[in-house]
Write a structure and sequence with these properties.
Helix content: under 10%
Structural class: mainly beta
Number of strands: 5
Shape: elongated
Mean pLDDT: 80
Order of helices and strands: EEEEE
Largest sheet: 5 strands, antiparallel
Distance between the termini: 8 Å
Number of helices: 0
Low-confidence stretches: none
Radius of gyration: 15 Å
Length: about 80
């Protein structure tokens, strides 16, 4: 996905708008506000030095104004 434009819902054909799905885990949150969701690949392993997994990309969320359906889309790291 290359932009955050609105989409059409596959369930009711309503208008889907971008939303932010917030994680309530405050322990890993180093920034002042909600952090964007990220994903990793199944074969990735933790870094020896940081103990963290590498990020394969970002996750964008959209919600339908008609039926409330939430859809997630994976974005490439350079998108």
């Amino acid at each position: 996905m290359t932009d955050e434009a609105s989409r059409t819902c596959v369930e009711c054909q309503g208008l889907m708008s971008p939303i932010i799905v917030m994680d309530k885990d405050h322990y890993g949150n180093l920034g002042p506000g909600p952090q964007s969701l990220e994903y990793r690949l199944p074969e990735d392993s933790r870094s020896f030095w940081t103990g963290k997994y590498p990020t394969a990309g970002r996750v964008q969320a959209f919600m339908c104004g008609g039926c409330g359906r939430i859809t997630l889309y994976g974005c490439a790291p350079d998108a």
